[in-house]
Write a structure and sequence with these properties.
- The protein has 649 residues and is α/β, with parallel strands linked by helices.
- It has 18 helices and 17 strands.
- Helix 10 (312-317) links the parallel strand 6 and strand 7 (323-328).
- Helix 3 (64-85) runs parallel beside helix 4 (114-131).
- This is Methyltransferase.
- Residues 1-24 form the signal peptide.
C-alpha cells in the first residue's frame, strides 16, 4: 500500500518541479522566483550560438531544483530495479506504477519552453526504457465487500454481512479429512427422548442378567423395564439389627428356611427371619488359638468365604474388624447370598467352577472353604490352584468340615489325603490340624517352587499368563508364581495399610509411570474431602446406609453385576457415563443400577455437563426423584452432581 502511494505521487512531483525549472518569472525581484538568474523574457532564453546553449545547460544543471529532481528520479529508478530483480517481492507491486509502458506519458505544462523539455528528456527516456523491459500486470482489483461482525476499525458492529456459503467447500473438507467427521458422528450415541419405563413381569423379581446356576452368560438383549419388588416388601432394617433379623417378605424365595433352617441356624417368627450364632464365634476363637499369627483385624483384614451359606462366618468376623466377602452359587432354592446381602453383609453370586473368580491375584489375607460340597482336588486340583492365585503370599487357607477329621468314613479320609498331598505339591505348609479344621500357609517366595523335581505336577504357569486377567478367563491347573520383588505379600498391618501405598502399585497396569504412590495419596485426600462433604450436606448419620456399591468404569467395565435385585442402599458413580457413552446406552446402565438399588435407596452421580442432562431424563423416566447440584468447584465447573432417590411406592 505504501509503494502504491509512493509511485502514484511521483509523476505529480515531477509536474510540480518542471514549471519551476522552465516557466518565466513574472517578477524577477519577487521572493518566490526561482534563483536561476535568467533573462526575464522567454525570448532571451533562446541561445544565439552553440556556446551559449552549452552555458545555459550548465547553469540549469547547477540549480537546486534540478538536483532535487535528479535525486527523486534516481531514487525511483533504484526502487524500480530492486522490485524487478529481487525474487522475494511479488510482481503485483509493479501494478502500483501509474506510468506503466501501456499508459500515456505525463504531460508537461503548455507554457514550458523547449529548453526545459530538453533538460529533462534524459531522465524521462531512461525511465521509459527501463519500464518497457517487462509488461507489468494490471492494477489490483477493487476491494471486496467486508464480511463478518467486525468493522474496518476493529469494533463489533450489528450491521454486517455473513457472506455467501459454498456447499462444495464442505464436501472438499470432508474428503480431505477422510470422512472422519461422518465416522465420529455415527459413533456418537443417538439422543433419545425417554417416556416412563414400565415394570417387568412378576417372574423377574429375582432376575440376575448374566448368570445361570454356575457361570456368566450375558444375553444378547437387555430388559427395558423396572424390576418389581415383592409383595409386602419393607425398607430393610438398619445395621446392626439387620445382622440378626430381616423382613420375611424381602426375600421372595424362603424355601431355604423351610428345608434347611436348622442347618443354617435360622427360623421364622411372625413376619421376620431370625439368625442365631450357630457356633461361629467358637469357630473363630479356635482358629485364633491354633494360629495366633493370623492376627484378625491387623495382619488379616480382607477375607474370602467360599460356599459360605448365609454369611454367618462373615457376620462373626466383623467383631474382629475383618471385612469378609461371601460368595456362593445360585440354584433352585439355595439363594444364600440374597440372605447375606439382606443382612447387610458383603456378598456376591459367583460360580466356583471353570472360570477364574473376578478378583486380582493375592487379593485376600485369608481364604476359608467349608463343607463337603466343594471338592478342591478334582481336575488336577484346578480349584485349589485358583485359591492359591487369590491368596496373599505368607497368608493362610482354612479348610473346615467333616472330611478334615479322618477318623470318620473312609471316603472322607480319602478326601483329606488327596487334599494333604496336593497342598504339599504346591508348597503349602500344614500349620495346624484340630478337629474339623485344617490350616495351611502359602510360601512367601518362589524358592520352594523352583526347588521341586523336574516334571513335578502341577507345573508353574507360563510367564506370559497374566495372573490379574480375570474376566471370562478359564482356570488353569498351574501354580501362579510370586513376584520376584515380593510385591503383593509385603503389605502393612491394618489400619496403617489404609494410608500406606503398597509396593505393588509399581507392577500393576496404570496410566502413570512414576509417582504412583503420590497419586494414590492424592486420590485418598481427594475422596476424603468429597465423602466428608457428603456426610455433612446429606446428613449421612441419619441415612443408615449399610450396603454401598462404588461403580468405577475404569476397573472392570460396565457389565451387569452378579448380585440379586435390591442389594444396595447407596450406589455411587463418578465419571462412569462419560467413559461409557460410546459403548453403552445410558438407559441400560441406569436400569441395571435401579435393579440393584433398594427401594428407598440413593444414587450419587458425578459427571460432565455433556452427559448430565440425558442422565437426568432417564432417571426421571424410571421414577427417581432427581436433583442437580454444583460440585465444590462452583457453578461454572464442567462437572455436576446428581442426587437421586428411589422412593418407596
Amino acid at each position: 500500500h505504501f509503494l502504491h502511494c509512493y509511485f502514484s505521487l511521483l509523476p505529480f512531483c515531477v509536474c510540480l518541479l518542471l514549471p519551476n525549472l522552465a516557466a518565466p518569472a513574472s517578477n524577477p525581484t519577487a521572493a518566490t522566483a526561482p534563483p536561476l538568474h535568467l533573462p526575464p523574457t522567454a525570448a532571451a532564453m533562446k541561445p544565439s550560438s552553440p556556446t551559449a546553449a552549452v552555458g545555459t545547460a550548465l547553469h540549469l544543471v547547477k540549480t537546486p531544483n534540478f538536483v532535487k529532481f535528479a535525486a527523486v528520479a534516481l531514487l525511483s529508478l533504484s526502487v524500480a530495479l530492486l522490485f524487478y530483480h529481487h525474487p522475494s517481492f511479488p510482481s503485483a507491486a509493479f501494478s502500483a506504477f501509474t506510468f506503466a509502458s501501456n499508459s500515456s506519458p505525463t504531460a508537461v505544462p503548455a507554457n514550458s519552453t523547449s529548453t526545459a523539455l530538453n533538460s529533462t528528456s534524459i531522465a524521462a527516456n531512461t525511465t521509459s526504457t527501463i519500464l518497457k523491459v517487462k509488461k507489468l500486470p494490471p492494477p489490483p482489483p477493487s476491494v471486496a465487500q467486508r464480511t463478518g461482525i467486525v468493522d474496518e476499525n476493529g469494533a463489533m458492529t450489528e450491521d454486517f454481512d455473513v457472506g455467501e456459503f459454498d456447499p462444495s467447500l464442505m464436501e472438499e473438507l470432508r474428503d480431505l479429512k477422510g470422512g472422519a467427521e461422518e465416522t465420529e458422528k455415527r459413533n456418537e450415541p443417538e439422543i433419545v427422548k425417554y417416556g416412563k419405563f414400565k415394570p417387568c413381569d412378576e417372574s423377574k423379581i429375582d432376575y440376575i442378567p448374566c448368570l445361570d446356576s454356575f457361570e456368566r452368560h450375558c444375553p444378547d438383549s437387555t430388559l427395558v423395564c423396572i424390576i418389581p419388588m415383592p409383595n409386602g416388601y419393607q425398607k430393610s432394617l438398619p445395621w446392626p439389627r439387620s445382622r440378626d433379623e430381616l423382613w420375611l417378605h424381602n426375600v421372595p424365595d424362603t424355601r431355604l428356611v423351610q428345608d434347611q433352617g436348622s442347618q443354617y441356624s435360622m427360623s421364622v417368627k411372625d413376619d421376620k427371619i431370625s439368625f442365631q450364632d450357630g457356633g461361629s464365634d467358637q469357630y473363630l476363637n479356635l482358629v485364633s488359638q491354633m494360629v495366633p499369627e493370623i492376627d484378625f483385624g491387623h495382619q488379616t483384614r480382607i477375607a474370602l468365604d467360599i460356599g459360605s451359606g448365609i454369611g454367618s462366618f462373615a457376620a462373626s468376623l466383623f467383631k474382629y474388624n475383618v471385612v469378609t466377602l461371601s460368595i456362593g452359587t445360585k440354584d433352585v432354592h439355595k439363594n444364600q447370598i440374597q440372605f447375606a446381602l439382606e443382612r447387610g453383609l458383603p456378598a456376591m453370586v459367583a460360580g466356583f467352577g471353570a472360570r477364574r473368580l473376578p478378583y486380582a491375584s493375592q487379593a485376600f489375607d485369608l481364604i476359608r472353604c467349608s463343607g463337603s460340597g466343594i471338592d478342591l482336588t478334582v481336575d488336577n486340583g484346578v480349584l485349589l490352584l485358583e485359591v492359591n492365585r487369590l491368596l496373599r503370599a505368607g497368608r493362610y487357607f482354612v479348610w473346615g468340615g467333616p472330611q478334615v477329621d479322618s477318623n470318620h468314613e473312609r471316603s472322607l479320609e480319602d478326601q483329606w489325603k488327596e487334599m494333604e498331598d496336593l497342598a504339599a505339591r504346591i508348597c503349602w505348609q500344614l500349620v495346624k490340624k484340630e478337629g474339623n479344621v485344617g490350616i495351611w500357609c502359602k510360601p512367601l517366595n518362589n524358592s520352594c517352587y523352583l526347588g521341586r523335581e523336574i516334571g513335578a505336577q502341577p507345573p508353574l504357569c507360563s510367564s506370559s499368563e497374566d495372573p490379574d486377567n480375570v474376566w471370562y478367563v478359564n482356570m488353569t491347573a498351574c501354580i501362579t508364581p510370586l513376584p520376584k520383588d515380593g510385591n503383593g505379600g509385603n503389605v502393612s498391618v491394618w489400619p496403617a495399610r489404609l494410608h500406606s501405598p503398597p509396593d505393588r502399585l509399581q507392577s500393576i497396569k496404570m496410566d502413570a509411570m512414576i509417582s504412583r504412590k503420590e497419586l494414590m495419596k492424592a486420590e485418598s485426600r481427594y475422596w476424603n474431602e468429597i465423602i466428608g462433604s457428603y456426610v455433612r450436606a446429606f446428613h449421612w448419620k441419619e441415612q443408615n446406609f449399610r450396603n454401598v456399591l462404588d461403580m468405577r468404569a475404569g476397573f472392570g467395565g460396565c457389565e451387569p453385576f452378579d448380585t440379586y435385585p435390591r442389594s444396595y442402599d447407596l450406589i455411587h458413580a463418578a465419571g462412569l457415563f462419560s467413559d461409557e457413552r460410546k459403548r453403552c446406552n445410558f438407559s441400560t446402565i441406569l436400569l441395571e443400577m435401579d435393579r440393584m438399588l433398594r427401594p428407598g435407596g440413593t444414587v450419587y452421580i458425578r459427571d460432565t455437563l455433556a452427559v448430565i442432562g440425558e442422565i437426568h431424563d432417564v432417571a426421571s423416566a424410571m421414577g427417581w426423584v432427581v436433583m442437580v447440584h454444583d460440585t465444590s468447584e462452583g457453578p461454572h465447573a464442567s462437572w455436576k452432581f446428581l442426587a437421586c432417590e428411589k422412593r418407596m411406592p
